[in-house]
Amino acid sequence: MPWSVRPLRPGRSWVAGPDPAALRTRWERLAAAGGAEQERLFRPSRSRTPHTAVAALPGRPGRPATATGTGGEAAVSTGRFAREPGACPDPVRILHGPFDEQWLLPDHRLIDAARPELWRVSDERQLFAVEHGYVPQATGPAPAPALSVTHLLPDGHSPAGRPGRIRPLYRRPGATDPNLAPGLLAVVRARLDPEATPEAVLAWVLAAAVPAPAGCRIPLPADAEVWAAGVELGEELVRLQLRGARGGERPRLPGGRRPYVRAALPARPPGIAYDAEAEALVIGEGRISPVPAEAWEFTVSGVRVLELWFGRRAAASVGAVPEGADVDGLDAVGARGWTPEWTSELLELITVLALLDGVRPRREALAARLAGAARISREELRAAGVLPVPASARRPASVLGHQEEGPEGQFALL
Fold first, then answer.
1. Is the pLDDT of residue 244 over 60?
2. How much is the pTM?
3. Is 257 within 8 Å of 277 (Cβ atoms)?
4. N or C: which end of the chain has fewer CB atoms below 10 A?
């Protein structure tokens, strides 16, 4: 997957978060402010200030500030924010690092580096592979795969603070132009599976990727049976991480062991702990069980996923800050306590992590088979014209399927 994109760089933390209502409140407070106060709340950077004029994000409705997009969606103004903030855009779902689905204000004027090339190819058929970042000392009883896969727009955030490259499966919308080295799919079909698809290659990558300092290494077997086993495992990993999106089934633990809320979670949780004997998450006076120990111990880049996920929401459940008490800027505007949506998401995340740990023996077995299996060599890939990968395959494709509004409402004819 030669074309990769660096992580999004928001430039200001208040443009994203776990609660969409809080994002709308932040927008309204910023739009209502003016002059030096708006400048302070905005948190200017070299790339963005309230006076910066930028193009609309691809795929977002860019029209006059009073207009709305199709289906009632708020149009995004491309005028300078200080002069023409426009209506608050509807927050969009994103993947904030592995396994954390959050929300983002999709306004290019607020984001230092939104990576428009990703927005341009994001549609109902796109999938993104996201590297977790290499951490050599990261260990744990249930290490995650080296990559995550998502149908949401990912920000490439790594729990360990390392940048993770984002690799779209397709270079153009509509599931066209696979992001694979030219000629690779033909080699796979000739040597391993005559009916291999780009999705099968992605499944193999997810199952077989090995983290390394220079990026993930992907061994390519010469044995069709090893390939088939890896693709089957990768398809299961994709299914679990998509969480029922794209028409799939929502993850469920076997044997009816669904986690339940045994005692209501407090509005502002003081912390989280794990009761191993009772297999329960303890959140203040609240309790959730059964929670398998493998879900609690699940780590990515050496960071425990459940603790990180909970910590972000506990910090956000501070409630709306009254006017005049906004000492910490827009970040101080949070949710009005712990939300029911977060509880549902937590129950689902526990299920996903437990199921991902359940396939760990299969990942270990695949790695053992690969260690002793013959592989398709670099020389064979060079002879087939797959290597070296041409520079054009490492760059985004030209996508001109729709109008994109430029700064201050401009359009260009090409």
1. yes
2. 0.91
3. no
4. C
Q: What is the mean pLDDT of residues 2-8?
A: 95
Strand 92-95 versus strand 153-154 pairing type = parallel
Residue 120: count of CB within 10 angstroms of its CB = 23
Looking at this protein, which amino acid is placed at residue 320? A
pLDDT for the residue numbered 325: 41
Domain chopping of the chain, boundaries: 13-251+387-409, 254-358
Q: Record the tokens describing residue 151, joined without a space.
A: 């149908």
Hey, what's the torsion of the CAs at 58, 146, 134, 181, to 10 degrees? -60
Ranking 97-101, 157-161, 208-212, 323-327 by mean pLDDT, the lowest is 323-327
Within 8 A by CB and 6+ apart from 32, the residues are none
